[in-house]
Specification:
By secondary structure, this protein is mostly helical. The protein is built from seven helices and no strands. Helix 5 runs antiparallel to helix 7.
Length: 159
């Protein structure tokens, strides 16, 4: 593993964490849930609205740390792992415009349905480069599993 204690490495970590949080913030700013979501029928396990930005900020911070660990791996082939990671992140960020921008619960559900297996594969691939990088993805995986259940329930209750 490369020197993780250098100023350059620490700056990269902070940048990656900030970039992930900012990407989520940007998606939410352009496509806020708004009153439309308040009118949807929701399952009994639907979290309070404040839970979403708090949880996602923490998850995006962990995701940034995970990429940082991947980039510090000395193993060959991490470019493909980074491409896979970026693909799942793109699918993740598409949820907001699909669900809230288009106001389409079904498309939101499909997005999470695609994201979950893509994330599992990403975690497995990350493990080959950095077990810690893959472990940082586990809370994200658990939340996406919950999000799949939640989005399926929203779709069924509102279709």
């Amino acid at each position: 593993m490369k020197n993780v204690y250098s100023f350059k490495s620490k700056a990269l970590l902070i940048s990656l964490v900030a970039l992930h949080i900012f990407a989520g913030f940007l998606a939410g700013s352009f496509f806020p849930p708004g009153p439309w979501v308040e009118q949807l029928s929701k399952p009994s396990f639907y979290p309070p609205p404040l839970a979403f930005p708090v949880v996602w900020s923490l998850l995006y911070a962990l995701m940034g740390g995970s990429v940082w660990l991947l980039l510090h791996s000395d193993k060959q082939g991490k470019g493909k792992a980074l491409l896979l990671y970026t693909s799942q992140l793109a699918v993740n960020l598409l949820f907001t415009p699909l669900m809230f921008g288009l106001r389409n619960v079904f498309l939101g559900f499909l997005d999470v349905l695609i994201l979950l297996p893509l994330l599992v594969v990403t975690i497995v691939v990350l493990y080959k480069f950095s077990p810690r990088a893959s472990l940082l993805q586990i809370p994200y995986l658990l939340w996406v599993g919950f999000a799949l259940t939640l989005s399926f329930s929203l779709w069924r209750l509102n279709s």
